[in-house]
Write a structure and sequence with these properties.
It comes from Leptolinea tardivitalis. The chain starts with 9 loop residues before the first strand and ends with a helix. It is about 35% helix and about 25% strand. It binds adenosine-5'-triphosphate.
């Protein structure tokens, strides 16, 4: 059966992921089915080890799926070759990590140019100009020739956001984007996320942070590799955060 749900930008159908461990197969995702609408700000919560990052990896295709289907923006993610996937990812997804993952030897400007250079969407001149504009948007243009280790963690995350937006992808995937930031800096990052949603992006964010989840338009909880059923918008964040 086709996994696409009309109107959805992302559809997961009975997604299972097993990891091989010395103790045998471990099922990290036990059959996740969910549809995400364009322009949603979806937050995924759950205790440590529940399967949140594994779920994101199934959406981005950076790890193989054991069974089931993932469809993003009309494409069946796990039916592409690795090369096709890499290009597709560069054009369709902006990925933001807890640890920023900037290239330490490249300037901020060069870091933001990387996805554009990889996908050849713009001429080198246009890509430089666009990287500068994106750094201006996150208020870091004046630092654009610095290396990542010369700026703060919050500033590095803003560079990572600029980089995620480089090819103007429809979907942003963020894994604990505020996990390493103090609460004031985290709020600034979440303000930028809200702005991105207003600009038409779809955001999927994993978080342990209750105030981050409160910004979302929908919250889903994963428990032991399964989506918790019931009214997912009324999850008690207190219980999740206390046990994370
Ligand atoms: N490569 C791997 N090999 C074996 N087991 C793995 C692997 N990656 C993850 N797991 C296991 O799969 C389960 C889900 O892991 P995952 O990283 O998705 O959890 P999480 O909810 O993101 O946790 P956290 O909040 O701590 O990041 C965990 O029990 C984890 O130990």
């Amino acid at each position: 059966m086709d996994s696409t749900v009309v109107g959805s930008i992302i559809t997961l159908q009975d997604v299972k992921k097993n990891y091989q461990t010395p103790a045998g197969d471990f099922q990290a995702l036990k059959g996740i089915t969910v549809s995400i609408d364009p322009n949603e700000f979806l937050c995924i919560v759950g205790k440590s080890g529940a399967g949140k990052t594994t779920l994101l990896n199934m959406i981005t295709g950076v790890d193989s799926i054991s069974s089931g289907k993932v469809n993003v923006n009309g494409i069946s993610v796990h039916d592409m070759s690795e090369d096709e996937q890499a290009l597709w990812r560069g054009l369709n997804l902006g990925i933001i990590y807890q640890s920023f993952e900037l290239m330490p030897m490249l300037t901020l400007l060069e870091n933001v140019m990387l996805p554009m250079d990889f996908c050849h969407l713009y001429t080198p001149g246009k890509s430089r100009e666009r990287a500068r504009e994106l750094l201006r948007m996150v208020e870091l243009e004046e630092h654009m020739n610095k290396l990542p280790n010369a700026i703060s963690g919050g500033q590095q995350q803003r560079v990572a956001i600029a980089r995620a937006l480089a090819n103007d992808p429809p979907v942003i995937v963020a894994d604990e984007p505020t996990g390493r930031l103090d609460s004031t800096t985290a709020e600034t990052i979440l303000d930028i996320f809200e702005h991105m949603v207003k600009e038409g992006k779809t955001i999927i964010m994993v978080t342990h942070d209750a105030s981050a989840a409160q910004r979302a338009s929908r919250v889903l909880e994963i428990v032991d590799g399964e989506l918790k059923t019931g009214d997912s918008t009324n999850i008690s964040m207190k219980s999740i955060v206390a046990t994370a």
